[in-house]
Amino acid sequence: MLAALTEARSALATGDVPIGAVVVDDTGAVLGAGRNVREAEADPTGHAEVVALRAAARARGEWRLAGCTLVVTLEPCTMCAGAAVLARVDRVVFGAYDAKAGAAGSLWDVVRDRRLNHRPEVVAGLLAGESTALLEEFFIAHRGEV
Fold it and tell me: By C-alpha distance, which of 49, 136, 58 is closest to 93?
């Protein structure tokens, strides 16, 4: 999670929401890292999770990321939760819950939907305080509110 938080902080330089993600293999080695790049690249799919999953798939040379864990500072949205399912990661670990758009247990539970053919394990709340504080500082500075 510390590597994901480092990625999140790097998003601040481009005015992107500070969300970071890493994909690690079963030994803990980082295969892919990402941060939000929606503003930087004018890309609506430029979420940290998608960037990290793409990098990990390139590093592995295949789209199936079995044996891997997606670690992200904020609970994935529906797009990112779906991407984690499609990438076949074994688990999703996240920091802060997202009551407005979370799809790993808060608003929706895409990753554990029994209608899908893959359901990663979910570990929630890892370093949630640090992730939440980073997001709150960003939104207070940009909007004057959380």
Answer: 49
CA 60 to CA 57: how far, in whole Å? 5
Residue 112 corresponds to which tokens in the numbers above? 């554990």
Say what the pTM is: 0.95
Tokens 């510390």 belong to 2
Catalytic residue among 7, 39, 41, 49: 49
The crossing angle, in degrees rounded to 10, of helices 128-143 and 2-10 is: 10
CA–CA separation, 141 and 146 (whole Å):
9
Give the tens place of pLDDT for each residue, 7-60. Answer: 999 999 999 999 999 999 999 999 999 999 999 999 999 999 999 999 999 999
Q: Which residue shows structure tokens 């590093």?
A: 59
Give the amino acid at 23. V
Q: Is 2 exposed, middle or buried (0-12, 13-18, 19+ CB in 10 A)?
A: exposed
- What are 58-102's pLDDT values in tens digits? 999 999 999 999 999 999 999 999 999 999 999 999 999 999 999
The reply to whether 49 belongs to the active site is: yes
